[in-house]
Amino acid sequence: MLNILVIGNGQCGNRILDSINKHAFGGKGGKLVKFYSKQKFNSNVQTIAINTAVNDLKEMKYTRAKDRIHIPHLHGVGANRTIGKQVFEEKKEMVMREIEGRGNFDIAFVITSASGGTGSSFTPRIIKELKERYDYPVYAVVVLPFREEGTLYLQNAAFSLREIRESGVDGIILSDNQYLKNIGGSIQEAYDGINDMIAERILFLVDALDSEMMMVTDLGDFKTVMKGGAGLATIGFYRAEKDMPVKTAIQNALSPSGLLFSTDIYQEASRAMVIIKGDQKYLSIDDISNEIEKLSGAVGHVFKGIVVRKGEGPQVLAVLTLESARELESLYSIAVQAIQHEKEKKLRVQSGMELDKSFSQIEGLEPEY
Ligand SMILES: Nc1nc2c(ncn2[C@@H]2O[C@H](COP(=O)(O)OP(=O)(O)OP(=O)(O)O)[C@@H](O)[C@H]2O)c(=O)[nH]1
Ligand SMILES: [Mg+2]
Fold first, then answer.
1. Can you spell out the DSSP letters for 293-305?
2. Which residue owns the Cα nearest ligand 1 atom 27?
3. Where in the chain is the domain with CATH 3.30.1330.20?
4. Counting ligands in written order, which one lies closest to the CA of residue 10?
């Protein structure tokens, strides 16, 4: 049995964590013995949601009250990462005590948006503390912003990703709102859809790593995959109809519509782990092996795992580490423009003294009544 810690920071992290709890409960809130309740998961999964905004924490539906940690600071830090860092430093011991109280773990995931204030400034610091205090691997799950969300979010994303990378993290799993935005109608529907996609993938991974497999991949293999490449990864997933050949399901999980982040895996992937789950009658070992060989031909090393689940159609999860990420380069060039834009605006305000010119007009005057 694996002991797994999942932390969700800031609004985006909280919501994805809540979706994880929703799926783990089988969609019903409020059960105390989650994860064990339906024998759905073998693992001991501990979830902790952290936020400065109490409203974000209250909004969660499936996460136990004792798993929600409020760090009081007004209503969030308003996308200001400098304030976020200060608040974390002041409350660091409180946060770390809460984590310490949950026992020891085999693996941890820390989920956040890259672009807000709270989650993106807490995450690199929490990871750094975890890595200094414990010796289990820690992976960040980082959500990139819509590109049109504004200059502050873009610059936050650029700096927070660098800090997360430098925190001692064992790997960063990327998910991109911009890439996934066509999912739903309204923003909220798009968020919910994206959050469910991320939650489903993380739970599949956790479940597979802790299941008896016909063909084995384990935590050791996952660590090896995540060590490959430039410390960046993404996850593909596909749930097939029962009559779909397993090789098509594998191809779909690896195709652009299966991935959380825009990448051409045949150009950019460095290592992979592909796990296939379902009823034995859908899992032709020859077809699976052929498909995986094609992938390893392009990518390098690919671990494969097979989990037999009676009555379930084929489902495929692919963890892919990347040695380069063209999409990130373009995000950074937009972020540089955003920083420049903010800088120029600030200078204009400081040097232009438009307001001072107005004030000078009433210099020496008093109101007359
Ligand atoms: N996928 C997804 N993205 C979200 C969600 N909520 C917010 N975001 C994205 O997250 C970014 C904003 O970060 P938040 O997580 O809201 O910020 P925060 O960490 O709470 O920080 P402050 O509110 O500034 O204190 C934007 O890029 C949003 O598009 C969500 O539920 N799902
Ligand atoms: Mg917030």
1. HHHHHHHSEEEEE
2. 145
3. 231-322
4. 1
- Angle 45-47-49 from CA coordinates, rounded to 5°: 170
Residue that is written with structure tokens 């990448």 in the block: 263
Q: What is the pLDDT of residues 28-39, one digit of tens each?
A: 544 444 444 444
CA of 103 to the centre of ligand 2 (A): 28
**CATH no. for 3-210:** 3.40.50.1440
pLDDT tens per residue, range 312-321: 999 999 999 9
Token output for 229: 């490449």
What are the pocket residues of ligand 1 if the criterion is a CB atom closer than 6 Å to any ligand atom?
10-12, 15, 52-53, 56, 76-79, 113, 115-119, 143, 145-146, 149, 153, 177, 191, 194-195
- Of the candidates 256, 242, 224, the one whose C-alpha atom is nearest the C-alpha of residue 321 is 224
Residue whose CA lies nearest to ligand 1 atom number 5:
12
Give the global pTM.
0.93
Q: Which CATH architecture has domain 231-322?
A: 2-Layer Sandwich (3.30)
